[in-house]
Amino acid sequence: MGMTTSLWIRIGQSAFGPAAALLLLASCQQALPASAPPVAAAMAPSPAKPATATAAGVSTPPDASFATWLQAARTDAAKRGISPGVISQALTRIEPLAAVIALDGRQPEFSNTFTRYINGAVSARRVADGRAMMAKHATLLAELERQYGVPGRILVAFWGLESDYGRDIGGYPVVNALATLAYDGRRGAMFREEMFNALVILERGHIPLDKMKGSWAGAMGQTQFMPSNFLKYGVDEDHDGHIDIWGDVTDSLGSTANYVKSLGWDGARTWGREVRLPINFDVSLVSLDVDAKETTKTLSQWAALGVRRADGGPLPSQDVNAAVVLPAGTKGPAFLLYDNYRVILKYNRSAYYAIAIGYLADRLGGAGALGVPPSEGDPLRRDDVMTLQQGLVALGFLKTADGVMGSGTRQAVRAFQKANGLRPDGYIDRNIIAAVKARAPAA
Questions:
Q1: Between the CA atoms of 85, 70, 82 and 199, what dihedral angle is there, to the nearest 10 degrees?
Q2: Do 329 and 394 have their domain in common?
């Protein structure tokens, strides 16, 4: 999901980063392996649309409306102090990119499951590669932890999920991609500002235009910063006069450490941990919202309810508030999540992503695999989710059906479960869809 404030969820491994998590599926059960955040910027009125996309990477034919928009952008850039040379180089002879328009409008056919997500995000290969990177950059990571208070294993986990340790930083021309998204209109105001921020980066000489590549949504570098976050949090960690998050590991990890610190990382705490719940655990205490703030208790209070470490040992004796979540339902692993989990959410607002960052970091630090491997389940089609939601609407548990499994839908499922004598874990699978459908009045 790149970065602005955990705005988006990346589609596939090369969509975009934290600075931009495009909120296609910001729900716990829909996050896809990603690197980007939701955008709070107001949406600009949508101008005349470019021609329909034909093939990935192919630009739409130029049109007068885009030419007019581009001229206005050049005028605005000049008023903002961008030099004529940079304006001419970056904002001349560009056209809307059809592939970017297509990706921005893409509606996923299926939700993702926690099992598939976590197995892809924290694969054996990624763990092995990450441990190799930990060893290779041990001195740098130790210095960054001393300077910023963010553990090296956390930084390397971001690095691994965002770009597969620098292997996939994206190949789209950033300025052109941002201009396309600004012109296309859905989030025009936000992307227009990001385009101007990209011009500032060029103006300052951090990277030449032909090397300013990134995701289709404009997230850049090895840990996927949006241009605005580059300007706020990018650091010249190797002191060579340039902030290079594309090819320089030192600047990339240093900038990430600075950003994560600014988000509020508590160096005295971890992100959370896998735990073991007692057989009779009251699952109505499980948090369903992405922020995991519904029901928080101290570790001693959770311990009194029978919650233990994954290995059966007692929870730490610390005055820490935490929430219990079950991302794969009662048959999957349980996690206690602390405030640093919510810091990760600010980087990419996806519960799956945040748990994956913490779990990968633990594996990089030498921890073993999950004590309770999540059971595999079929991903749900958008039509399945609509069927569930329409049934919940008919039964009075939900107001509207939109095909997205957000926390509101999970809360409605929990209410349905309580009303029908089922364990109220709020988990959505084909069994609960069938139960709702059987009880909903016929259309």
A1: -90
A2: no
Tens of pLDDT, residue by residue over 225-269, are 999 999 999 999 999 999 999 999 999 999 999 999 999 999 999
Q: Give the residue numbers spanning the domain of 310.
A: 272-337
Q: What is the pLDDT of residues 343-377, one digit of tens each?
A: 999 999 999 999 999 999 999 999 999 999 877 77
Give buried/exposed letters for 16-52 (b at 16+ CB in 10 A, else e). bbbbbbbbbbbbbbbbbbbbbbbbebeebeeeeebee
Measure the CA–CA gap between 386 and 407, rounded to whole angstroms. Answer: 15
Residue 362 belongs to some domain of the structure: no
- What 8-state DSSP symbol labels residue 292? -
Return d(Cα 270, Cα 337) in angstroms, integer.
9
- Separation of alpha carbons 415 and 97, rounded Å: 45
Tell me the pTM.
0.86
Domain end point (choices 244, 268, 292): 268
Return the amino acid letter for 200.
Answer: V
How far apart CA 370 and CA 309 sit, in angstroms, is 12
List phi, psi (to 5°) of 120.
Answer: -80, -40
